[in-house]
Amino acid sequence: MHNSCGLDLKCVPKELKLQLEIMKRETAAELQEIDKAWFANIDWDKFLELTIHHRVYSFIYPKMKELDENLVPVHVIQTLHQYFKMNTFQMLHLSAEMEHMSKLFAENEICLLVLKGPVLADDLYGDISLRTSSDLDVLISLHNLDRAEELLLNLGYVKDDYIVSVLNDWKWRHHHITYIHPQKNIKIEIHWRLNPGPGKEPHFEELWNRKRISSLTSTPVYILGREDLFLFLVSHGARHGWSRLRWLVDINQIVKQQLDWEKTIKLLKKNYYFHVGGQALFLTSQLLKTPLIEEVEPLLSGNRPKTLAQEAVFYLERMVNLHTDPVPDDVAMYHSRHLFSLMSYQQKFLYTMSCLYPYPIDAETLPLPKQLHMLYFPLRPILCIWRRVRKHELS
């Protein structure tokens, strides 16, 4: 059972390795062929905890049912079944709201692309119950943001106004605003970018021109073109360190579909995600045995895809949750370094230049009237030094 795939997985929990072994099998016959030694000395509570953390319980449950009942405790199957049912109801709930939202935005002449949620589950897995989703992520053009917010507020949604901005940096530093419906218990993220800036990515008009229509609903719901979806999935997963296996399973699923790899590679190169695409394919091919065709070889050439993939193993060795503050200091430092290593030279230049642009914390350090906010540009180095000195004194 030693891993010979080229990735060092010796510190990855054996419970997670078992999940990978199960998820890479596609048929009942293949599941029956799993070496029973994989199931020895498994901490099943930890196994369940990991399936919940990685959001793969809906994908793994149908496979777990096919295993020899003597290998897995009954309570494990029962718990997974409960989560599977709850997710199915959640996805049906989100599907209804998504269809309603798409119709409403179309009536108000707002072009809307649904990024994730039930349409992604249907598109990649062919079944909305096989992928989890806690909210709806949609993409619109930035100039429609005010109108979209007005529609949501009229529907009873409440804005989660967490963004603090100075000199309108929110338009490029952030990429979405969250709205929550307290009665429906639904969260919607309105995106105007695929990822936070600074960085290059396709303009909304390009994405809209390459859109597809989802087959899930009777009312037209528009989704990203397949090559654009691949770019979005690899950039999103990499930005979060692939800290949830669900994102790698998404890559595994989309690679099995009919992608135009020539277009995909050009798209990745144009937006400086070529190396990130290589990282994603290396991870899935090694961890989930994703079949790769000859056309993807350029993405896997050289040492960088494997190096970046090995860096991502850090997030599989522990249950890293980057969405819950406070993130442990050691994890935050590692993640910061890893994100920088993922960047191309062009992205590193943009990021370095963006650090010279004032941050909201500068306004907190030295409050100035709005008409004097331009002074934060020359003052920023001084304010940074001041904060470091104060932090050192307090510590």
TrEMBL record:
Domain of life (superkingdom): Bacteria
Protein name, entry field: Nucleotidyltransferase family protein
Originating species: Bacillus bruguierae
